[in-house]
Amino acid sequence: TQLLEQSPQFLSIQEGENLTVYCNSSSVFSSLQWYRQEPGEGPVLLVTVVTGGEVKKLKRLTFQFGDARKDSSLHITAAQPGDTGLYLCAGLENRDDKIIFGKGTRLHILP
Amino acid sequence: DAGVTQSPTHLIKTRGQHVTLRCSPISGHKSVSWYQQVLGQGPQFIFQYYEKEERGRGNFPDRFSARQFPNYSSELNVNALLLGDSALYLCASSPWTGNSYGYTFGSGTRLTVV
Predict the structure, then answer these.
(1) A99 contact residues in B (CB cutoff 8 A)
(2) Total beta-carbon pairs less than 8 A apart between chain A and chain B
(3) For residue B99, what pLDDT is reported?
(4) How confident is the model over B60-76, as pLDDT tens digits?
């Protein structure tokens, strides 16, 4: 079973600061997705990266897929309190079409 | 358009009982997946169904079973409930299996076993 490790597990920073969270695996995924989850809700898809080296931007969020398709990062510029939440990375396995989730990074932005 | 709907939203059961959770995917989506999310952890894959056939099964005991109906809705059944089954159960839908472009999740069913 492929595993995804996310770091850090918890992050608390001041509004306006920049941050990066990481998602790493020893295995290759066909694609990698980032979700954000609010308390009591299901995860909401932010982005999917498919090609090694791919970079996608979503307003202040920048997502990168590693060249070898084993790792990914999420960078947030000028964090805002509305960015608070649980950020989950998830890799799609080809073998049985299931998504493997990391344990998540719980982000708290202080106003 | 309605998103993925799950019912009930909350449920309290006693150890040893049986529970059935329900999911209606987005209209036109033929694949439904079930996940268990324990507090403080990421979702863990339980099952995936596509066109009414099981396409994947996670590392869960046989007490867990599921099925998909002709209208693509799905049920997750758990027998002989244990305290450790307390979790948020999430349903996700996608147009087809092997969807590299992401899944849409419901808000989940919060199951508490006492």
Answers:
(1) 33, 45, 92, 103
(2) 70
(3) 66
(4) 999 999 999 999 999 99
